[in-house]
Amino acid sequence: MSNILDLALPVTETVNSVNILVHGDSGSGKTTFAGSGRNAGAKDLILAIENGTVSAARSGSKANVLPIKTWSELDQAITAIADDPDRFEWIIVDSITKLQDLIWEEILGEAVRTKPSRSKYKRELQEYGEAQARLSEVVERLNNSDANILWTALSDLETDENGHEFKMPSIHGRGGKQAAWVCAQMDTVVYLSVIEYQGKLVRKFDFNKTPEAYAKDRLQTFRVPQKNLTLAELTEAIVGVGPEETPAEDA
Ligand SMILES: Nc1ncnc2c1ncn2[C@@H]1O[C@H](COP(=O)(O)OP(=O)(O)O)[C@@H](O)[C@H]1O
Ligand SMILES: [Mg+2]
User: Fold this and answer.
1) pTM of the entire structure?
2) 193: which of 26, 30, 66, 216 is 20 to 30 A away, CA to CA?
3) What ligand is nearest to the CA atom of residue 23?
4) Is residue 221 part of a domain?
5) How do strand 19-24 and strand 45-48 relate by DSSP bridges?
6) In the chain, what's the furthest Cα-to-Cα distance?
7) Measured from the CB, is residue 51 less than 6 Å from ligand 1?
């Protein structure tokens, strides 16, 4: 009889793709960062649920952009990504905050089609559960795929049990539990903000939790905040700490 423990693998062989979420206020530079991958993002795909990829274009990005206007387009894109996960270096979902709006449009549109008398502005109780389940499904399908996924999110100001305010990704539902669940599905959560540093405005990327904002880094990419980071630099840092760093035994 085989022993289930024989199926255990060294941890270095279980790391295949990474899933990262970057949150920050509007204008903090999320989309510009999304377009700043290696070779100006030429091997990356932005699923543009939000308008605003013009920011990436203006900064000289060569990233590929697929506009996503409907649930069906998103569903097709996810299936294609899961079938061909190595076609792009990064898949960027810009943004998960706007994805929630798209899900609600789909649910309410469908509800009005089947019952034209109902208001498309009033959400019914059972629909909240459906909206959350659909979002969770999208996160699981993409994060469980072998593609590297970068999610962007707006930030919301939350209040903890001690009355202290801090920034969390803006993902609604279950009194903050949906946002916490999404964060739990990520290897790394980065908080992006614009600060003044030595008289200049810089983009600050926090990889670790601060009193100001939620962040975490299972990949242990950076121990200190990074200034004006690009996705190309982040990619190098991840590859550098990953199994690729170990020289091949036959080399
Ligand atoms: N690293 C950067 N250096 C200089 N300007 C930047 C940088 N990142 C973003 N910006 C500028 O900030 C503005 C907002 O950026 P954008 O990426 O659209 O933010 P977000 O997607 O978070 O709303 C744009 O005008 C963009 O050119
Ligand atoms: Mg944007």
Assistant:
1) 0.91
2) 66
3) 1
4) yes
5) unpaired
6) 70
7) no
Neighbours of 5 (CB within 10 A): 6
Q: Alpha helix (H) ranges present in 84-215?
A: 96-114, 125-144, 177-184
Q: Is the pLDDT of residue 38 over 60?
A: yes
**CATH code at 147?**
3.40.50.300
Q: List all residues 6 or more positions away from 170 whose beta carbon is below 8 Å from its beta carbon.
A: 23, 97, 153, 154, 155, 156, 179
**How many angstroms separate the CA atoms of 115 and 44, rounded?**
41
Task: Classify residue 28 by burial, with Cβ atoms within 10 Å: 0-12, 13-18, 19+.
Answer: buried
Total structural domains within the chain = 1
- Residue 134 near ligand 1, beta carbon < 6 Å: no
Q: For residue 248, is pLDDT > 80? A: no
Among all ligands shown, which has an atom nearest to the Cα of 57?
A: 1
Question: pLDDT-derived band of residue 86, with 50, 70 and 90 as boundaries?
Answer: very high
Task: Report the amino acid identity of residue 244.
Answer: E
Residue 242: what pLDDT? 44
23, 32, 151, 202, best to mutate for ligand 1 pocket (most atoms within 8 Å of CB): 32
How far apart are the C-alpha atoms of 168 and 25, rounded to whole Å? 10
Residue 39: give the domain boundaries.
Answer: 4-238
* pLDDT, mean of residues 77-99: 97
Residue 199's SS3 state is coil
